[in-house]
Amino acid sequence: MRLLAAGNWTGPHRIILGIDIGATQSAVAFTYLCPGNAQTLHRVHEWPGQPSQKGQSRIPSVIYYDENNKPMSFGAEAVLPDTEDKAEDEGWRLVRHFKFHLHPSEIKRRQDFSLEPLPSGLSLIQIYTDYMAYLLNHTKTFFGDHVLNGSRVWESYHQDMTVVFAHPNGWGIREQGFLRRAAIAAGFVMRDKAHCNIQFVSEAEASVHFCMFHSDLHEHLNMGVYFVVCDAGGSTTDTTAYYVKQTAPALELDETKASACVQAGGVSVDAEFQKYLFSVLNQLGLSEDQRNECMRIGCRDFEENVKKAFDGTGHEFRINLGGGRTMNHPNLRISRGKLTLNQETVLSFFNESIETAVDCIRHQMDKGCEHVLLVGGFGESLYLRNVVNSNFSGARCSVTVTSDPNAKAVADGSVLWCAKRTVVSRATRMAYGIEVLTPYDRNNVQHCGRTTSMQLDGIEKVSGFWSQIVSKGTIMEANEALRGEYHRSYDNSNPSLGNFTVTIYGYNGAGDNANTWLTNKNDRLEKGFEEVCQIRADLSGMRKALKKQKGTKGKYYRLDFKVAIQFGDTEMKAFLEWEHGGKTSTGPAEVLPNELSIGSP
Q: Is the Amino-acid biosynthesis keyword given for this protein (predicted)?
């Protein structure tokens, strides 16, 4: 427990949860802000199956399911030897690395990375819901045991608590919508409060807040300083560049360019070792059960010992295969049940992920960068730390790493982010816009073969044209909105406006796409485009704003409106505006993310 801020809390009772569901490990942190009391940050620990005296707050992101897809064991308890034996006897199936299934396609995937399939009949939304419910249940228990009158406080205020989920830079409104649905199903919040009470922060931004809280970094962040955060986690490496806008009365940071997110991290290192070990064991003539047992023991020994201790030096490293002293194969360097690896072989497991992290940092850096913050589970790798230091540490730039082995920076940082809101502007990761009609030009080859229609104004138009509202990499201040002006036409003065919808698309391809086509001549999205969400609003009250027009086919009615896109926090917001009687009005709008098909039961 540490002080979150100086002075006692002067606001109303408030609970804030910070949740990080990582590819390999997860954690929860929280604060209970009580009027007149100190503001403190708590890490949830004492998880089932975890030694309480060690204060470890991280648990494995794993679940055992039985043959009926009922969850039987979670987290630290699931990796206990007794649990593993029971799982083998009962035929349970282990689900791990499920975070990979939620990654959007635009995150660059390793071409040779094998995604573990989900068990038959088990949806990703159910896995996330089960795991979130487990996190919530233990957090409630821990809160009751470690906060004064904790059980009563929880019952009084948990229905209005703020829940902050951290996620990779490359996740957007679809993945956020998925997490929100799973959190509702898990019982974190009621559906009618979910939009306000569930918030999202990028893992890199949460890590910035963690580093400022747990190190002396804030003392070096003078106005005008540029720095880069590299969150090297289990499944992704996220990098973001920041500029210190001001230091007083409160620290404010701006993103300087679009953040990056690639699929490379600690799990990729494990996968390289697994491929190598499998090829070695295949040469021993073992039964399938014997080979699987050696794989299980060998992979765990690598992850818990060699991977953590390797710093790029050393000559030989031994991996326990569990084969006993009678397992000897000198030609494969196996002696007394242990496999010996040389330095070059171990380096080969790390190289691609290390090179990816260094390239990502270099891409984000400007000449004036003064600090590089290295965080995340893979960021604890001694070898990665040494390589980053050798590449970037010098007279003008320093490298800062986290040094708390019991912490998961992102969970702590999520609570701190919610309480402090240091980042005040962000760079958009993609361009946003909508589909519009454009006048048909029979002499333009790009128009030929596309769907055309005669509009009420008497002009023949072609569909599928891209109208950009926000360009990629735009720096947007908190609560700043960018707008595009549009109109729709109706053949009567009383059209149905109760379910008015506008579809927002995103572009994450290469090059300038400001004047191009959203769809091809077969009405399919062009490469680099994707449907992001729909804005749905009841605009029945806008009928008075309809303007009577005269076209070649007679009178019609035109409705002018604006589509506004906003990134006040890390979650995209969109709404509609219109003018009537000299006043600008904004109607309540619902943003409906494009749901992920894998998330459906």
A: no
454-493: burial string, b at 16+ Cβ within 10 Å, e else: eebeeeebbbbbbbbbbbbebbbeeeebbbbebeebbeee
Look at residue 60 and tell me whether its pLDDT is greater than 50.
yes
- What the block records as the tokens of 386 is 């040494």
Q: What is the pLDDT of residues 126-157, one digit of tens each?
A: 999 999 999 999 999 999 999 999 999 999 99
The type of residue at 584 is T
Residues 166 and 29: beta-carbon distance below 8 Å: no
Instruction: Give the closest residue to 442 by CA, choosing from 431, 452, 454.
Output: 452
Tokens 């720095």 found at: 227
Token duo for residue 379: 């960021």
Q: Exposed, middle or buried, 174 (CB in 10 Å: 0-12/13-18/19+)?
A: buried
Helices 288-301 and 266-281 cross at an angle (nearest 10°) of 140
The DSSP line for 144-207 is: HHHSTTHHHHHHHHGGG-EEEEEE-TT--HHHHHHHHHHHHHHTSS-GGGHHHHEEEEEHHHHH
What are the tens digits of pLDDT across the range 61-100? Answer: 999 999 999 999 999 999 999 999 999 999 999 999 999 9
Report percent pLDDT > 70 for the chain: 94
Summarize pLDDT for 558-589 with one digit per residue, the tens: 999 999 998 766 778 888 888 877 788 776 67
Residue with the larger pLDDT of the pair 17 and 581: 17
Q: Give the length of the chain.
A: 601
Q: Rounded to 10 degrees, what is the CA torsion of 587, 588, 593, 594?
A: -50
Give me the pLDDT at residue 299, please: 95
The position carrying tokens 């300087």 is 256
Q: What is the DSSP letter of 353?
A: H
Q: Is 391 exposed, middle or buried (0-12, 13-18, 19+ CB in 10 A)?
A: middle
Angle formed by the axes of helices 266-281 and 343-364, nearest 10°: 160
Beta strands 500-507 and 316-320, pairing class: unpaired
- What pairing do the DSSP bridges indicate for beta strands 252-255 and 423-427? parallel
Q: Please check whether residue 594 is in contact with residue 504, taking contact to mean a CB–CB distance below 8 angstroms.
A: no
554 Ramachandran zone, left/alpha/beta (phi>0; psi -120 to 50): left
List, as one string, the DSSP characters of 356-421.
HHHHHHHHH--TTEEEEEEESSGGG-HHHHHHHHHHH-SSS-EEEE---TT--HHHHHHHHHHHH-
CA distance 568 to 477: 7
Question: What is the C-alpha to C-alpha distance for residues 479 and 508, in angstroms, rounded to an integer?
Answer: 23
Collapsed DSSP state (helix, strand, coil) of residue 251? coil
Domain ranges of the chain: 2-202, 204-257+364-423, 266-350, 431-599
State in Å, rounded, how far the first CA of the chain is from the last one: 39
Would the CATH topology of 2-202 be identical to that of 204-257+364-423?
yes
pLDDT band at 403 (very low <50, low <70, confident <90, very high): low
How many CA atoms does the CB half-sphere of 406 hold within 13 Å?
15
Question: Nearest 10 degrees: CA dihedral of 271, 277, 282, 288?
Answer: -70
Would you identify the CATH topology of the domain 2-202? Answer: Nucleotidyltransferase; domain 5 (3.30.420)
Architecture of domain 204-257+364-423: 2-Layer Sandwich (3.30)
Q: Are strands 500-507 and 481-490 parallel, antiparallel or unpaired?
A: unpaired
